């Protein structure tokens, strides 16, 4: 059994590392007489449908009986108000510099007390879709937010009899169950943006003052990724798929922030009609022992901006958040998608949307693709040095998206560095760096995909997908990336770098300097919590010196 929720009396004491101040406060709230448990997906649907503010559309759920839903189930819509994305400014991680556990324990005790005066509901779910890694999770929400509880159950794996049977025979880890306490109505003068408190070593979180469903999903994944990381897995915020070729398989992972093209790349079919299996487009883990990969959740939390109402994918929507509703010419309530109402309209979409879905890939990963929006790079670059491959993951350059509730003054179009496209890491950055460096040392290839602009021209999704197909089919012809020996590039259309143009070389140098600055800043920022080995700065410095030679 992967995670623990019951202990013998002899192990219930202060020396047991499964307990903490925050965990004991949060878990205790689940046992109050104001709390009722949701025991089936059908019950969750009925509660959500009958909650004030829920919109019951006339769009039927595809194959509801196979999802545990009533046969007459329809897509439900809930809307949150002004905030329609994740609020990074609200996150606090116990164990990181400047985070006082005693102070936040008091905050959580008061929040739990306030919740004890409200009716609340809980649900139990599973995270991890292979018996090699499974965790049990519990969510508590006040009544009135059954829509989020229902979406949570659909997004993850409801802890039904079938999953419980598999869970009982799964690999055991010395990890407590995940507990998440949430109160969207919570207010505190010191936390105007709300509070997402993560206690990663004790698999506990509180999500306070935030209505957006994505906060619940990412708090859960933050804890699951951290637990996996502690137990021999690489935590991955990305998409993975596998091509079934004539004589072999090709397994690839694409890492990028929301809006970078990660889901488009992961869910795309091969132009040459090879069968393609999808592991997941957002959350998975890679075993450091044998290279296999495991999906953490069955469903997809997808943007609706690319799905007009006549798109076939709409048939697989289960719930929608922050999206408009209108009447069609049959007087049926349907969705206004494509972000007409606001940015970051979302849907929980069923696994039926990918009939070739797999939950566990036993084969070792063949390639990692870092998705960036760095205009100094052509559409596809190959990195042959494992250290440099990991460093480009550390310094993954991209742009913020509408999935994030950004603080005032933040320029959404500014190039930013988000290591490994994972803003949910709650352990030192050097540990991910070492994991990916080791992965590349074990003959996993490394590529960079620029899905933004190059030489002022937009790189299209078709160009990106065609390039990936060429790599998969071993037909890609890479050329030297100027004077940098460990980098080559794939010629794509008109997006060709000119290494004789000093202005272009200066742009490449400038971006590498930005990366070097970021790496150097980690030695002092945040009390050096995310400091990298000395080889990181020296490696990037060597690339800059190579460009300086070319410019002289």
UniProtKB/TrEMBL annotation:
Q: Which SUPFAM superfamilies match?
A: PEP carboxykinase N-terminal domain (SSF68923), PEP carboxykinase-like (SSF53795)
Q: What family is reported?
A: Belongs to the phosphoenolpyruvate carboxykinase (ATP) family.
Protein's pathway = Carbohydrate biosynthesis; gluconeogenesis
Q: Which key words tag this protein in UniProt? A: ATP-binding, Lyase, Nucleotide-binding
Pfam families reported in the protein's UniProt record? PEPCK_ATP (PF01293)
Name listed for the protein in its UniProt record: phosphoenolpyruvate carboxykinase (ATP)
Q: So what EC number does this one have? A: 4.1.1.49
Catalytic activity from the UniProt record: oxaloacetate + ATP = phosphoenolpyruvate + ADP + CO2
Task: Give yes or no: UniProt keyword ATP-binding.
Answer: yes
Q: Which ranges of the sequence are coiled-coil?
A: none
């Amino acid at each position: 059994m992967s995670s623990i929720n019951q202990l013998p009396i002899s192990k219930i004491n202060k020396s047991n590392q499964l307990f903490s101040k925050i965990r004991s406060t949060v878990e205790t709230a689940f046992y109050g007489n104001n709390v009722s448990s949701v025991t089936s997906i059908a019950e969750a649907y009925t509660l959500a449908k009958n909650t004030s503010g829920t919109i019951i559309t006339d769009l039927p759920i595809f194959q509801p009986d196979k999802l545990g839903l009533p046969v007459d189930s329809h897509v439900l819509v809930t809307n949150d108000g002004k905030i329609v994305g994740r609020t990074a400014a609200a996150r606090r991680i116990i164990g990181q510099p400047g985070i006082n556990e005693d102070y936040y324990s008091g905050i959580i005790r008061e929040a739990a007390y306030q919740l004890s005066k409200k009716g609340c509901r809980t649900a139990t779910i599973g995270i991890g879709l292979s018996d090699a890694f499974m965790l049990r999770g519990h969510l508590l929400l006040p009544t009135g937010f059954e829509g989020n509880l229902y979406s949570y159950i659909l997004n993850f794996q409801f802890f039904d009899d079938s999953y419980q049977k598999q869970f009982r025979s799964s690999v055991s880890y010395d990890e407590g169950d995940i507990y998440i306490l949430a109160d969207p109505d919570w207010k505190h003068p010191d936390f105007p943006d709300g509070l997402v408190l993560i206690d990663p070593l004790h698999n506990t979180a509180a999500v306070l003052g935030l209505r957006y469903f994505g906060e619940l999903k990412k708090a859960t994944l933050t804890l699951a990724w951290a637990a996996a990381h502690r137990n021999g897995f690489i935590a991955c915020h990305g998409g993975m798929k596998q091509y079934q070729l004539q004589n072999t398989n090709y397994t690839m992972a694409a890492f990028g922030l929301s809006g970078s093209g990660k889901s488009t790349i992961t869910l795309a079919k091969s132009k040459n009609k090879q069968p393609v299996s999808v592991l997941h487009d957002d959350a998975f883990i890679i075993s450091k022992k044998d290279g296999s990969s495991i999906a953490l959740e069955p469903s997809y939390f997808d943007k609706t901006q690319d799905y007009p109402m006549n798109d076939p994918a709409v048939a697989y929507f289960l719930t929608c958040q922050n999206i408009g509703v209108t009447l069609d010419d049959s007087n049926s309530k349907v969705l206004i998608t494509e972000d007409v109402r606001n940015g970051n309209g979302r849907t929980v979409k069923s696994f039926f949307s990918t009939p070739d879905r797999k939950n566990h890939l036993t084969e070792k990963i063949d390639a990692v693709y870092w998705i960036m929006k760095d205009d100094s790079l052509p559409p596809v670059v190959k990195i042959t040095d494992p250290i440099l491959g990991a460093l480009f993951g550390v310094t993954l350059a991209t742009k913020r998206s509408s999935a994030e509730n950004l603080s005032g003054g933040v320029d959404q179009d500014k190039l930013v560095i988000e290591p490994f496209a994972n803003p949910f890491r709650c352990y030192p950055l050097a540990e991910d760096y070492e994991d990916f460096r080791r992965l590349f040392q074990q003959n996993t290839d490394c590529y960079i995909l620029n899905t933004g602009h190059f030489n002022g021209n937009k790189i299209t999704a078709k160009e990106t997908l065609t390039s990936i197909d060429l790599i998969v089919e071993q037909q890609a012809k890479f050329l030297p990336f100027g004077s940098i020996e460990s980098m080559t590039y794939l010629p794509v259309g008109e997006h060709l770098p000119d290494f004789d143009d000093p202005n272009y070389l200066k742009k490449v140098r400038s971006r590498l300097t930005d990366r070097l600055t970021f790496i150097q800043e980690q030695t002092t920022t945040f009390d050096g919590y995310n400091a990298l080995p000395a080889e990181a700065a020296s490696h990037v410095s060597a690339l800059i010196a190579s460009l300086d030679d070319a410019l002289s």
